[in-house]
Amino acid sequence: MSKKLTARKEDYSKWYNELVVSADLAENSAVRGCMVIKPYGYAIWEKMQAELDRMFKETGHQNAYFPLFVPKSLFEAEEKNAEGFAKECAVVTHYRLKTDPENSSKLIVDPDAKLEEELIVRPTSEAIIWSTYKGWIQSYRDLPILINQWANVVRWEMRTRLFLRTAEFLWQEGHTAHATKQEAIEEAEQMNDVYAKFAENFMAIPVIQGTKTANERFAGAEETYCIEALMQDGKALQAGTSHFLGQNFAKAFDVKFATKEGKLEHVWATSWGVSTRLMGALIMTHSDDQGLVLPPNLAPIQVVIVPIYKGEEQLAQISEVAEQLAADLRKAGVIVKYDNRDTYKPGWKFAQYELQGVPVRIAIGPKDLEKGSVELARRDTLTKEFVSQEDVVEKVKSLMIEIQENLHNRARDYRDSHITEVDTFEEFKEVLKTKGGFISAHWDGSSETELKIKDKTKATIRCIPMGQKREEGKCVFTGNPSTQRVLFAKAY
Amino acid sequence: MSKKLTARKEDYSKWYNELVVSADLAENSAVRGCMVIKPYGYAIWEKMQAELDRMFKETGHQNAYFPLFVPKSLFEAEEKNAEGFAKECAVVTHYRLKTDPENSSKLIVDPDAKLEEELIVRPTSEAIIWSTYKGWIQSYRDLPILINQWANVVRWEMRTRLFLRTAEFLWQEGHTAHATKQEAIEEAEQMNDVYAKFAENFMAIPVIQGTKTANERFAGAEETYCIEALMQDGKALQAGTSHFLGQNFAKAFDVKFATKEGKLEHVWATSWGVSTRLMGALIMTHSDDQGLVLPPNLAPIQVVIVPIYKGEEQLAQISEVAEQLAADLRKAGVIVKYDNRDTYKPGWKFAQYELQGVPVRIAIGPKDLEKGSVELARRDTLTKEFVSQEDVVEKVKSLMIEIQENLHNRARDYRDSHITEVDTFEEFKEVLKTKGGFISAHWDGSSETELKIKDKTKATIRCIPMGQKREEGKCVFTGNPSTQRVLFAKAY
């Protein structure tokens, strides 16, 4: 834990991997591509969950739980969705092990316990949920259905990275059913808005809202809305998606409802999700070479108090002040840890909390006792100051807001300075190589062009930004006419 | 929903199944043995989770997340545990599907995507967690580890029933690591206490704390503590277990720590869990022939207000009073729903909320407007009274406490009157047949006797109660000497 991280400039990817492990966020497990989320990392995820859950309920959604497994026949019912996930799904074929007849300390799959129909471990739950909704929906009175699920899903990715791409990950998936197309579209847009607000206000991550091109859409969706964030290495990260699914799943599972007028119609659907991938976005938006930097909203510990002392008597004197301060801060709603462990030295503790991104560190030593002060250090700016003991609570309260805002502003400034308008393909390649970030360019709207650009540059269209002004122009690759700019980037 | 439930006397099991489905708690899914937990049922589970989570954190535990899959080689490392779960586990053998060459609209398992090592869907996580703890524990400084996980697990049960026994269920599993045997035993006992307090104070379910006999112990445990509840049909239900695992898993996964004195020793372990099975316990402790009865602590809706009206004008007048009342109740911390839907009649609503166990129903009609009153109905006693509008908030506040206590008392009285001391096997069989409940009898301590009794009566030893006085006696079956009574019952 005392080892320094690789500098971001030197090797961003290595820095990321080292940080995730050394800040005690997560680690690789004995299962290929699956991670263990450690308590400190999980505590951050819990804060995200709590806030999202609150926002979902505020917008009228309820939680429920659907099975982990999808029978193969249901899985393949919606063709595009099945096609999209078939290549990466874990398949349960047997339901029992038995003792190996050749080695009684070993177990083998019992060939007599083969399932009649294979079960897919859910990569996403549209299929199992829509087969269930069929039983719930008869008339317009049963609509809308506004349900969210917190769950684990599995996608057998070949190249995995902690939080960013793992075979198993945690997420929430909303699945809603509506009587009209318009209402479903509004729901999909509303939930993308919720994600954007959550990212900006709670995670301090600036995002661009937009829609995906056909190539980048969710398998089975008619429109995919997304929020796109920019990481410190100039690569984009899709932080959340919300899909208008049209009537595709209703048709695949024969889900119809009687309208007020008594006509039978197929139901309209949306789905939307964010995952533990957000942990990756959080890390790569705010952190630095010293380690994790956390916005106060997401910090499991907002303030740590470290005593600097020699001998038990001094510790007792400092503890008296520290414990009073901790109590006062807790009363003010701040999450405080007083770390008086004698198994670790103050220097070790400083480095550890810096690495773990605790927003504010307060050190109290014998001189502070004399002067009635404390030393207060900000993680976001790495600055220190002395504060009088009687002012600490107010100071910390305002810092919680200030640090949250500072991180947001810093990330937005970086992002804004990394959106580059280009009008030629030469420029496109040059910016991508030297600067990275989002490239705002005209595109002729064809999948073919998009794929050719991807092939030549590895950049994809991250989104067609929403609420953007129309602008006549020429496609940066083909020169064909275009009516608006789209955002390209290399992406996670 | 308007169909009456089968009476409990007539067919308890049928009553249970009908109630779970018609009160919108859960239903069977397209996947054999797996359930869909519907929003209303899930909202109750969320309340249980929130309270348990609070209690776990208060006792120093943190949440984390470990992989869904256990590689077969890890699964089989702790022999007894492996043996205990091998016969009912879902096995992932492949990681890809492909288009069926004989039918392009179908998918088949891709034989080229066979896993080198099969993965077991976790039936419990000791194996994967202890293989992880090996990397976390070097010295006494790393202990104790106090971790809990909220997760889904899979046990391929042949006979399933909603909430009580399902192939997939939701649970929490605590997994702790300690430096000493004593500390681990204290942890296991502490968590069983937490479960008992939760059941009694929060769920209003009286439980008996005890230890399991060797036959009934968790596979891999040295001691299993449990809380046992009694259902209305005289059958017992194990509502939670806490295991002292000794050094079994530490030895299987070679987890050692350096003591303060520098010696290397194996770590001591516990694990403990409760699951969505608690929903079954809740239902079968409190509910009646009219449907679910919920203690206020667990009610997603604590008070429902139903307007009784003819025409829009009357509805507007009633709504004014109802909405003010709802606001006042919310201010007092009560969860209220004002159901002014015009798509359903009051009678339908009354039946529905009765079926769903809403603790208090308030009806407001035109006469109430005149008199300044409301009609208030209690779900637990099925009694009604008129209450003046200005007294409603205070009345409801005190009812929330009163109903919670009443349900607890009622269940405890039933339970207490269904613990029967018997001293002969004839009596044993007679009580089991005519009255059910717990039978307190002497037992000679041998597994053989226990299994013979089970074989003859289907009754098992539910627990050896804790803190019970010693009493010399003779085994009810063999006549061999015994030092204390144990509790037998038929069980879920």
UniProtKB/TrEMBL annotation, chains A, B:
EC category: ligase
Gene Ontology MF, one: ATP binding
Subunit-level organization: Homodimer.
Domain Aminoacyl-transfer RNA synthetases class-II family profile intervals: 27-295
Function according to Swiss-Prot or TrEMBL: Catalyzes the attachment of proline to tRNA(Pro) in a two-step reaction: proline is first activated by ATP to form Pro-AMP and then transferred to the acceptor end of tRNA(Pro).
Domain remark in the UniProt entry: Consists of three domains: the N-terminal catalytic domain, the anticodon-binding domain and the C-terminal extension.
Catalytic activity: tRNA(Pro) + L-proline + ATP = L-prolyl-tRNA(Pro) + AMP + diphosphate
SUPFAM superfamilies: C-terminal domain of ProRS, Class II aaRS ABD-related, Class II aaRS and biotin synthetases
Keyword ATP-binding: yes
Keywords: Aminoacyl-tRNA synthetase, ATP-binding, Cytoplasm, Ligase, Nucleotide-binding, Protein biosynthesis
Membrane-spanning parts: none
GO cellular component, one term: aminoacyl-tRNA synthetase multienzyme complex
Subcellular location per the Swiss-Prot or TrEMBL entry: Cytoplasm
Entry keyword annotation includes ATP-binding: yes
Signal sequence coordinates: none
HAMAP family registered for this protein in UniProt: Pro_tRNA_synth_type3 (MF_01571)
One Pfam family from the record: HGTP_anticodon
This enzyme's EC code(s): 6.1.1.15
A biological-process GO annotation: prolyl-tRNA aminoacylation
Sequence similarity: Belongs to the class-II aminoacyl-tRNA synthetase family. ProS type 3 subfamily.
Protein name: Proline--tRNA ligase
